Amino acid sequence: MLRNVSRQLLRSSKVYLPQVAVVRTQTPAFISPSIISKRFNITQSASTLTKEDVLTRSVSVLRGFEVKTKDIDLQTTFVQDLGMDSLDLNDALVALEEEFDVVFDDKTANEIKTVGEVVDFVLANYLPTEQSINHTIR
C-alpha cells in the first residue's frame, strides 16, 4: 500500500531526481584487453632504456649546472667531484625527475651520492606510459 501511494505521489508531483552517471573503471569481463589492442591496434612499448642511454641523458642534464668537472661517469660524486651543495643536488634531482619522469622519494634523495646511483634508480623505476597508435589504420 505504501509503495502504491509513493508511486502515485511521484507521478502526480513533478519531482525531478538527479541523474547519476555510472563510470566504469575496469574493462567489462566480456571484453579482453587483447581484443581492444587488436581492434584499435594499440601497442605499448617496453622500456628500451639502457644504462648508457640513462648515463648520457643524465650527463647532459648535469652539464646544465655549474659543475667543477666536465668528466662525468658512473662513479662521479655530486658533492666532491661536481662541487654541488645540498640545494644544487636537490635541483639536479628535480631536473633528472623531469627528464626521466620518475620521482625520487625523500629517503632515496638523501641516500644518493653518485651519478651511478641515479642511473640505477632510473633504470629500476622508469616505466614508459606512452601508448602509440598505428596511424596507418583509420
TrEMBL record:
Main site of residence? mitochondrion
Q: Matching SUPFAM superfamilies, A to Z?
A: ACP-like
| Gene Ontology cellular component list | mitochondrion
Q: Which GO terms describe its molecular function?
A: acyl binding; acyl carrier activity
Establish whether keyword ATP-binding is in the entry: no
For this protein, the record's InterPro entries field holds: ACP, ACP-like_sf, PP-bd_ACP, Ppantetheine_attach_site
Record's keyword annotation contains Heme: no
Q: Tell me what this protein is called.
A: Acyl carrier protein
Origin species, per record, is Komagataella pastoris
